[in-house]
Each structure stands twice: as C-alpha cells, then as structure tokens.
Write a structure and sequence with these properties.
two-stranded antiparallel ribbon, alpha/beta, single chain
C-alpha cells in the first residue's frame, strides 16, 4: 500500500514539475500566458528557478512517511515542506548562492518572540556569512528605528558583531527589510544597535518612486475605515494602530483581554482586501493585507 501510494504521489509531483518546466520555457519565449500551467492555474506568476518536486517529495516522504499514512492525506504542511525542499535543491545545484532571505515570526523565532542568543539558527546563519552569502531578514514588522529591530534580532546581531570582532567574518552582509518593503537597515558594527538606516532614495525601485504619498495615505484611510467596519460588525474588542505605512488592529489591552480567533482575522483580512481592491488608491498603490499569523 505504501509503495503504491508513494509511486502515485511521486508521479503527481513529476507531472507538476514538468508543467513548471514548460512554464519556464514559455517565459523565456515571452509566451508564458499560453503555458499549460497558466491555463490550469490562471493566477500563477513567474518562476525564477525550476523546482525539483519529485526529488523533494522523496526526501520529505522518507522523513515524514506521508505515503505510509492510511487515513490522513498529504497536508498543507507536507506540501509546503516539499515545495521548500524543492526550492532549496534547485538553488543549491544551479550555481553559487549570493543571497538568502528569511521571514521573522514563525520562521526564525516564535510568533511575537525575538531571536535570542540560544536560537539554533544563529550558528547556521553565521556559517552562511562566512561563505560570503548575504543574509536578509524580511519581516512585516515595521519600525523606523534600529532599536526596535535590535530588540527582535539581538541574538543574531550580537553574534555577527562578535564574529566580526574576532575576525571570523571580514565583511558580514546582513540586511533587515521591514514593514512590507518600506524600511531598510543594514548591519554596521560601528552604528548603535549594529544597524544603519538606509534612506529610501538609495534603494527604491523606479516603480516604487512613482507612488505618491497622498495616494499611500488615502489607501491607509480606506483600510482604516474597512477595519473599523469589521470591528463594529463583529463586535471585536480591538484597538486601532496607524503607522507611517501601515494600519492594523490588536486586541484591546486590559483585564479580560482576548486574542482574536483565526476566523475573525480571516474575515477582517478578506473584507479589507476586497474594499481596498475596489478603491481608487488601491488601484494605484500595491498593498498587502494579512492576518499576522
């Protein structure tokens, strides 16, 4: 039974892998709008590398025994880990890696926590830095000052600083891109908190330079109104937070404070996203609506 299931799952992965390879070939010719994958999944975007899905599935199946399960089908986590492995295998074998990026919450550390000194990812990241690979931490956390990012990433930043002091790493390249690509900091041993703010005019893409601040603020106004509507309709005990480039809600502080349920968060995100998509500023400025989980 397990052998048959493994063979069938592997065949499916091989078929999807071939669809992706065809899509990439069509991309190179500028005809990816007519690829088989695009016809099956109209929302599919651009692939920058092939994905070794069959090999990745074999690897994950060996560790997670997906094919040996009788009643539990392949889960979201099974698929996600297979895709992650396929991406890593492709990157590792397609040439020297120059940049590796990581999410913060629920990737490098638990949700709402910080990257402390004992985190097991730190020596692994240091090993990458010794190889000359640039490390990027891409997080939704939007802070305008280095201190707040240091509070969240102090274990890694302290370790990098010590490695630089001990001459283990000559030129550590570490960047923090926060607030959904709105704030950029880079490691600087001589700066306070080991981070130096990089002005937007240094790194913004040409497309991003065309976004006008009045449109950004209008977009946030619409989003704030949508969030207030959700608070009232679902009777949420919530507090609104408005920042320079973001707006959101958190549970109201005080006694009896309750976390939002996943369903409440999903409803809030979907309502807000739809209202933004139909708004005038939503057609001018790209945005991201997410539930923070």
């Amino acid at each position: 039974m397990a052998t048959t299931a493994h063979r069938r799952y592997a065949e499916i992965m091989q078929d999807v892998e071939e669809l992706i390879n065809d899509h990439i070939s069509q991309q190179k010719r500028g005809t990816h709008g007519r690829s088989k994958l695009k016809l099956l999944v109209p929302s599919v975007g651009v692939f920058f590398t092939p994905l070794r899905l069959e090999e990745a599935f074999n690897f994950q199946d060996h560790h997670r025994r997906i094919s040996s399960r009788r009643f539990v089908p392949p889960s979201f986590n099974d698929i996600r880990l297979t895709l992650n492995s396929a991406q890593m295998m492709s990157l590792a074998r397609s040439g020297p890696v120059q940049l590796m990026t990581f999410d913060g919450d629920v990737t490098l550390y638990d949700d709402g926590e910080s990257l402390n000194d004992e985190n097991p990812v730190i020596p692994r990241i240091l090993r990458l830095l010794r190889q000359g690979i640039c490390i990027g931490i891409v997080t939704a956390a939007g802070y305008t000052d280095a201190k707040r990012y240091y509070e969240r990433l102090h274990g890694l930043l302290d370790a990098v600083a010590n490695a630089f002091t001990d001459k283990e790493i000559d030129d550590p390249k570490v960047i923090i891109l926060g607030g959904e690509s709105n704030y950029l900091f880079e490691f600087d041993y001589h700066s306070e908190h080991f981070l130096r703010f990089v002005p937007r005019d240094v790194w913004l893409l040409d497309e991003m330079r065309r976004w006008e601040d009045k449109d950004i603020q209008s977009l946030l106004d619409v989003a704030e109104g949508a969030l207030k509507e959700c608070i009232n309709r679902m009777q949420l005990s919530a507090e609104m937070i408005r920042k320079d480039r973001a707006v959101g809600i958190i549970p109201s502080p005080g006694p009896g404070r309750h976390k939002f349920t996943r369903e409440q968060l999903e409803e809030t995100v979907l309502v807000t996203q739809q209202i933004l998509e139909l708004s005038d500023p939503g057609r001018k400025v790209p945005f991201c609506a997410f539930n923070g989980q």
